[in-house]
Amino acid sequence: MKSADARHETDPQEQTSTLRLIWPQWQGAGQEMVGQLLPEAPLDRARRGYALGARFLEAMLPEHDGPTEVVPVPQEESGSTGGIESREQILASLDAAQEILSRHGDAPRILTLGGECSVSVVPFTELARRHGEDLAVVWIDAHPDVDTPETGYDGYHAMAVSAIVGQGDPEILDRLRRRWIPRGWPWPGCTTASRTPSPTSTSGV
């Protein structure tokens, strides 16, 4: 009989075949939302808490024998352009993440440690490229993240699911390798018939 410790040991094969992607992006967390969540902290420090969180998660995990990559994230931020706050920095990080994943195309698993919600976009669209309709996404969040630049809230974190399914900023969508086409939307806030996000804004955190 296996001991309790043995039952919880990580499979060595799983460790070596998993890409651990550290993505400390914080610019996608809109100033409006962060200001509501942490009004007692200076805004510039509160927003960078997402980057600290990514490093904290990395430190908590057991040692990893597989590949580990860190997505370089610009230190600056910018105003709202085309309905997306810090759009230039988000595009730069997106390109860097795409380049990393292209070098690890044989990794069957991607463990992403972020960062705000939008760091999920590139890994999920990469998995959609590899697996097509065999991919299923379970999105657990306080809201469905189906905003777009047209819905009035410019925090890119709230547009993550929209980008994954091919809705939103045209330049961002053009840079993604694939979009995920779900067979249905089993949650409120999205329409099953059209398979596209509803126009309901999710900015009210």
Please identify, by name, the CATH architecture.
3-Layer(aba) Sandwich
Radius of gyration over alpha carbons?
18 Å
- What portion of residues is helical? 25-40%
What is the mean pLDDT? 80
Query: How many helical elements?
Result: 9
The residue ranges in which pLDDT falls below 50 over 5 or more consecutive positions are 1-9, 191-205
Q: Determine the strand fraction and express it as a percent band.
A: 5-15%
The outline comes out as: globular
How far apart the termini lie comes to 48 Å
Keywords: Hydrolase, Manganese, Metal-binding
Protein name: Arginase
Family: Belongs to the arginase family.
Pfam families: Arginase
Please characterize this protein's 3D structure.
- The chain has helices at residues 4-7, 12-16, 31-37, 43-47, 49-60, 87-103, 121-131, 160-164, 170-175; strands at 18-23, 68-70, 80-81, 84-85, 109-114.
- It has 205 residues and is α/β, with parallel strands linked by helices.
- It has a single domain (17-175), classed as Arginase, Chain A.
- The strands form 2 sheets. It has a 3-stranded parallel sheet with strand order 2-1-5.
- The longest helix is centred in the middle third of the chain and has 17 residues, at 87-103.
- Belongs to the arginase family.
- It comes from Rothia kristinae.
- Keywords: Hydrolase, Manganese, Metal-binding.
